[in-house]
From TrEMBL, chain B:
This is Branched-chain amino acid ABC transporter permease. Its main location: membrane. Belongs to the binding-protein-dependent transport system permease family. LivHM subfamily. GO terms for biological process: amino acid transport. It comes from Streptomyces sp. NBC_00148. The chain crosses the membrane at residues 6-27, 34-54, 66-90, 102-120, 149-166, 196-218, 230-258, 264-285. Coiled coil: none annotated. The lineage of its organism: Bacteria, Bacillati, Actinomycetota, Actinomycetes, Kitasatosporales. It holds the Pfam family BPD_transp_2.
């Protein structure tokens, strides 16, 4: 990582209901490609993302392109060029697909990039008038990712975008993220190591609300002992099956 | 038959009044989780503003014709302004403390009627109105007071306007989305606080209009009017589903009719009682009625 | 007269001040205050500005007794709001039930006073049990609204005067001839005052003990995070109902005291405004603190009366309208004060000393 990081998180702490969820997370998001945020369940991955965005009260330092963002309200921070696809997809079920996308429009130089979104997800154009709540999980994820691509963002944050999706849809989402990452750096929270292996150049691993490891993704995943120690996964049946799905496709 | 028609029209008029209060209450709760106990006070402010203007205190306004329309406009504007001030000064600073927001509106709900009775006395004041609106008209053999029709028309206009606003404008889209998931709206880069002020303004506007026209309906204004209507507006909001404007409209009609008919055909006051018990029953049967949908 | 010698509650576990500040005797200040309050009827001390006549005069004692009564009522109400986190908008109902039920048993059945007092208490507690068990099936703002609906239903019922039982808008005077003679008449105001004082001591003691019991600790857990209590395998429902019934029973006793103090039942005590004023008292004084609700209740009641007197006085009538109008409306001033406290003084007046201390230390 020679170029300075796009997003620099230092000593991020989050306290919810009097309990410390994060004790000091350090994270660098590379200015190109995908940086994966890994960790076991409950390690604080989603809280880190929400803390970065100011969706939970936080302390510490979060620099976006060198500018401090802790203290800014979420909407101001997002307007500086962040696209966010949350863990639960954050779809507005009672709004149509078109309305969900329209809501994400921000005033920018080029106007909303509906061309790109509809090219990547032709289905969203066909289903524009359908209520988002009636979409399948995969289609909802398309809406969520589509919203992040609509504006000329500087950073896309995707929290477990492949969670709960059918293998075929996982492949589709991975391809879109791969293409998006060519233009915009992506911070990807992911449990599926096959997806990480395919997309991520860099990674950070959280454990118990702290950063346990940062480095090259390939190096970590190549070290089976470290992978098991940090992520608690070996050759579990679920992981290996999804492994095959993605790799067979590539 | 004529009794039936009169009761129906009166019930609808009352329902229209309830809708004017409940629509804003419902939007505010749906978007902000704030049960606005000061909403009745906003109605009272609208009523007193109109009364004050129509009593010859505002140049150009008066009890008849266009003068009265101006008075209603004035009262509604004052109520809207009061609602915006309420949101900006009282509610907004407590953004991170939802329960305190409710408590603060309780305080305002106590203070405003007291202030009104301090200025204009605690007794009811006769409400001036144009000749044309104080008469009756014949409908299926019944002499129906015109003011019922005025209220119904106003409620329909407000309903249509609200639906257009929610369905056709970007601000309306933000409000609908905010009712579902406020945090996600901010995560899309939208300052949801603008929507907060907006729903307060809309709610205050509708309630103040209700106050202005309610003065015609009741024939008088008194400082406690708004607060006593508030409880029935709560019933409407819960029945219709929090955050749903169309739901509030349907519920308002049902509640208004039930109340009128029950009060007439059974012992006086039983209708009020029935409606209040209905609120409890609904909440118990359908606790999720509080998290309704917007339509 | 035995009420005046009710033993003081156990010395409070006063967390911060005394240890640093000096003599252990300071810990006994509640007992000292209690003694002072108990002997107040014998005092001819004038408190100009605070009270109209000397402390021991019937008028002053009546006001003081009302203050103590509401101090106690607010303390009981805070069992729900500040201790269990339940925002009830219908507490007036149980207070009114205590008053009206006692009065109706007296008037209609003509039973001895001791019996009707117990019946009044039981009626209030039973009503709280029934309505509480229903209301608590919903939580959050839904609970608030169900309680509001039930209280409103009660209020409508009372004002409709079914069968002439409640006296409608006028309320119903208690039959003086059926009450013990030492509780009737202006000469016996001191007795009523002592009863109000005893009610306050009783409420403080009950709330204090309840909060420190194992049940009280579960209440605290429910207030902090109901889900976590569920995770521990406890069912919050029963604990919340216990708090609701206990608070309802305490309110019913208060209604009984109010009946004696004012010589009748009035429909004003059934209104939602009455509950809201309790809410204001608790928040003003400091919800969830030991003395806050009591202080809030006493101050609110005193201010309400004194401001009312002030409004009727010549001094205010001569003021320009800008000052006269707000000053003539106690509820306006109290409402504004309430909003100000909610904004500027979270935790109410009870947190004021510690806040001031902290500010002083910061400036040092």
């Amino acid at each position: 990582m020679t170029a300075p990081a796009l997003l620099v998180v230092r000593d991020l702490r989050v306290l919810i209901g009097g309990r410390h969820i994060l004790h000091g997370v350090d994270l660098d998001v590379a200015p190109q490609g995908v940086t994966a945020l890994l960790g076991r369940n409950g390690a604080g991955k989603t809280t880190t993302v929400r803390g970065v965005l100011g969706l939970v009260p936080r302390a510490g330092s979060v620099l976006l392109d060198g500018e401090e963002t802790v203290g800014l309200p979420t909407h101001t921070l997002v307007r500086r060029g962040i696209g966010y696809a949350p863990e639960d997809r954050g779809i507005f079920a009672d709004l149509t697909v078109a309305e969900n996308l329209r809501l994400a429009e921000r005033r920018g130089a080029d106007g909303p990039a509906y061309g790109l979104v509809h090219e990547l997800f032709p289905e969203l154009k066909r289903r524009a008038k359908q209520l988002a709540g009636t979409l399948s999980g995969g289609q909802q994820q398309m809406v969520a990712i589509g919203r992040t691509l609509l504006n000329g963002n500087r950073l896309i944050i995707a929290d477990e975008p492949t969670k709960g999706l059918a293998p075929k849809v996982v492949t589709e989402v991975v391809q879109v993220l791969e293409r998006a990452a060519e233009a915009v750096p992506v911070l990807l929270v992911e449990q599926n190591l096959a997806v990480v292996r395919r997309l991520a150049a860099h990674c950070a691993v959280l454990a118990d609300g702290r950063t346990a490891h940062q480095g090259e993704a390939a190096a970590l995943l190549g070290d089976e002992e470290a992978t098991r120690r940090l992520l608690g996964v070996g050759r579990g049946p679920l992981t290996s099956r999804q492994d095959l799905t993605v790799e067979a496709d590539s | 038959m004529s009794t039936l028609v009169l009761l129906t029209m009166t019930g609808l008029g009352l329902g229209a009044l309830y809708f004017l209060i409940a629509s804003g209450l419902s939007l505010i709760f749906g978007l902000m989780d704030v049960l606005n106990f000061a909403h009745g006070a906003l109605l009272s402010i609208g009523a007193y503003g109109t009364w004050w203007a129509a009593s010859g205190n505002l140049p150009g306004a008066g009890p008849g014709g266009w003068g009265f329309a101006l008075a209603v406009l004035f009262g509604t504007a004052v109520g809207t302004l009061a609602a915006v001030v309420l949101e900006l000064v009282v509610v907004r600073p407590l953004y991170t403390r939802p329960r305190e927001q409710v408590l603060a509106t309780v305080g305002v709900g106590l203070a405003v009627p007291a202030l009104l009775s301090g200025v204009w006395g605690s007794d009811a004041r006769t409400f001036p109105g144009p000749e044309a609106l104080s008469g009756t008209f014949g409908l299926l053999g019944a002499d129906v007071p015109v003011n019922r029709l005025v209220l119904i028309a106003a409620a329909v206009v407000v309903l249509v306007a609200l639906r257009l606003f929610l369905g056709r404008t970007r601000h309306g889209l933000v409000v609908r989305a905010g009712v579902e998931d406020r945090a996600m709206v901010t995560a899309l880069g939208i300052d949801v606080r603008t929507a907060f002020t907006l729903v307060f303004a809309i709610g205050g506007c509708a309630a103040a209009l209700g106050g202005a026209l309610g003065g015609l309906y009741f024939g008088s204004v008194d400082p406690r009017q708004g607060t006593s209507l508030l409880i029935f507006a709560f019933v409407v909001v819960v029945t219709g589903g929090m955050g749903s404007v169309t739901g509030a409209a349907v519920a308002a009609v049902v509640i208004g009719l039930v109340q009128q008919f029950a009060n007439y055909y059974t012992a006086a006051g039983l209708g009020d009682l029935a409606v209040v018990v209905l609120l409890a029953a609904l909440l118990l049967v359908r606790p999720r009625g509080l998290t309704g949908r917007l339509a | 007269m035995s009420t005046a010698t009710t033993p003081a509650p156990a010395p409070p576990a006063f967390a911060t001040a005394p240890a640093r500040r000096g003599p252990r005797l300071l810990r006994w200040w509640p007992a000292a205050v209690l003694v002072l309050l108990a002997v107040a009827p014998y005092s001819a001390l004038p408190l100009p500005g605070l009270l109209d006549g000397p402390v021991g005069s019937p008028g002053s004692l009546q006001l003081l007794a009302t203050c103590l009564l509401f101090g106690a009522l607010a303390t009981g109400y805070d069992l729900l709001l500040g201790r269990t986190g339940l925002l009830s908008f219908g507490h007036a109902l149980y207070f009114a039930a205590g008053s009206y039920a006692t009065n109706m048993f007296l008037l209609e059945a003509g039973l001895p006073f001791a019996v009707v007092a117990v019946l009044g208490l039981c009626s209030g507690a039973l009503l709280a049990l029934v309505l509480g068990s229903v209301s608590l099936r919903v939580s959050g703002i839904g609970f608030s609204m169900v309680t509001l609906a039930f209280a409103q239903a009660g209020s409508i019922l009372v004002s409709r005067n079914p069968g002439g039982l409640t006296g409608g808008e006028e309320g119903r005077a208690a039959p003086a001839e059926l009450l013990p003679s030492w509780l009737v008449g202006i000469d016996h105001t001191a007795n009523l005052y002592w009863i109000a004082l005893a009610y306050l001591v009783l409420t403080l003691a009950v709330v204090h003990r309840a909060v420190r019991s194992p049940t009280g600790r579960v209440w605290e857990g429910i207030k902090e995070n109901e889900r976590r209590v569920e995770v521990l395998g406890l069912k919050p429902y029963g604990f919340k109902l216990t708090a609701f019934v206990l608070a309802g029973a305490l309110a019913a006793v208060g209604g009984l005291v109010h009946l004696l103090l004012t010589g009748g039942s009035t429909p004003q005590t059934t209104t939602s405004d009455f509950t809201l004023s309790l809410l204001v008292m608790v928040v003003l004084g400091g919800s969830g603190t030991r003395w806050g609700p009591m202080v809030g209740g006493i101050l609110y009641t005193w201010a309400d009366h004194r401001l009312g007197d002030l409004a009727g006085s010549g001094a205010v009538a001569d003021l320009p309208a800008v000052l006269r109008v707000p000053l003539s409306q106690p509820l306006f001033l109290l409402g504004v004060l309430f909003v100000a406290v909610v904004h500027l003084l979270p935790g109410g007046l009870a947190r004021l000393p510690s806040r001031l201390r902290r500010t002083r230390e910061e400036h040092r």
